[in-house]
Design brief:
379 residues, 2 domains, abc type-2 transporter like fold, 4 strands, elongated, mainly alpha
């Protein structure tokens, strides 16, 4: 490989990028927008679930029971009503996701040590959110029951004996903040999409503008041309990574507990594979529109849906789980979350790192072998 020819192609590509502000914006501005939008808009935390209440008992006991929901961050009581019609209307129109009906003799049941029936109506149209909200409600009721039992045993002078004493300890994300889960995975999504989209247009643009014939007539070899086009976008990808890490840590307060050097080394390997995949698509398509569509199809959809960023892989069907082994972002997301949150190194991440190296090598070989320094025959 002649480094002078590589530098010449590299300089040409840098000039092309600077003359095309849209490509520069695509590479720098869009990642920032995506991080802000996903970081603030996409949240897996369920808070302030709107709840309507019909308290038929309306005593100090029922009010004390409702205070457990009111003082919780998970629920927001939007109003108190005195009939089923209002509750049904609120749930039907989506103004309330949950409705609670406390029976007339609620306090009598509690003070006579009987089970007090409480009706809970849930909007199940969004099944995942409904299940989470139901879990929160069950937790609040369980805490209330435990308090009632404890107070009763203390009044009677009985030592409360609990057969199972579960003492939980949450590692890596003690407060269950969803941004800790989302932001590291979002870095992989952005790097894969931006890298593939940017480089998918490079060679195709040369064919469409008629400048590829001039490059073919020069002594530049295929691998030198690919390397010269690769390096400018690699620099842009590293800038995107720096921006994403800084915003994730300082804007969204996601802790970076692991090695920053290891993060950049493994990210560079992933970036190399993603860029060369885009170059391969550009060589194969020879059309900017077709190349951009193929890049989106092969980068965004698999990375977003099958990498474990949006849905847990273990919850997918077995044949879909088998497909995820061919998605490079699957391994990169594990690396990012491991370095950011768990402070693990190569002793733990060696398997994922090896898969990324394999992906980068295959992508480079495909791009180099696909490029032929000759004008295609017109059929």
């Amino acid at each position: 490989m002649n480094l002078k020819r590589v530098r010449a192609v590299c300089n040409k590509e840098f000039i092309q990028i600077m003359r095309d502000p849209r490509s520069l914006a695509l590479g720098i501005v869009i990642p920032i927008i995506l991080i802000v939008l996903f970081g603030y808009a996409l949240s897996l935390d369920i808070e302030n679930v709107p709840m309507a209440v019909w308290d038929q008992d309306n005593t100090k006991t029922s009010v004390d029971f409702l205070l457990n929901f009111k003082n919780s961050n998970y629920f927001q009581i939007i109003g108190y009503y005195d009939n089923y019609h209002d509750l049904e209307r609120l749930v039907d129109f989506g103004d309330a996701m949950m409705a609670m009906v406390i029976p007339k003799d609620f306090s009598h049941y509690i003070h006579s040590n009987q089970k007090a029936p409480v009706q809970l109506i849930l909007d199940g149209s969004d099944s995942n959110t409904a299940q989470v909200a139901l879990g929160y409600a069950t937790s609040v009721v369980s805490a209330y029951n435990q308090r009632i039992v404890t107070n009763a045993t203390l009044r009677q002078g009985i030592i409360n004996s609990v057969p199972v004493d579960l003492r939980q300890r949450i590692w890596f994300n003690q407060d269950f903040q969803s941004r800790y889960f989302i932001v590291p995975g979002l870095i992989a999504i952005i790097m894969m999409i931006i890298s593939a989209l940017l480089t998918s247009l490079t060679v195709a643009r040369e064919w469409e503008r008629g400048t590829m014939e001039q490059l073919i007539s020069t002594p530049v070899r295929g691998i030198e041309l690919i390397a010269g086009k690769f390096l400018p976008y690699f620099a842009i990808g590293i800038i995107d990574l720096i921006i994403a890490v800084i915003m994730g840590h300082f804007v969204f307060s996601v802790p970076l507990r692991g090695s920053l050097v290891l993060l950049f080394v493994l990210s560079s390997i992933f970036l190399t594979g993603a860029l060369c995949l885009g170059i391969y698509i550009s060589i194969a398509a020879r059309n900017q529109l077709m190349a951009s569509q193929l890049a989106m199809l092969t980068s965004f959809l698999p990375t977003f849906l099958l990498s474990g960023f949006t849905y847990e892989i273990f919850n997918m069907p077995k044949f879909v789980q088998a497909i995820t082994y061919f998605i490079p972002a699957r391994y990169f997301i594990v690396i990012l979350r491991g370095i950011f949150l768990k402070k693990v190194g190569m002793r733990v991440l060696w398997h994922e790192a090896l898969c990324l190296v394999l992906f980068a090598v295959i992508a480079v070989l495909l791009a180099v072998r696909k490029f032929k320094k000759k004008i295609p025959e017109i059929k």
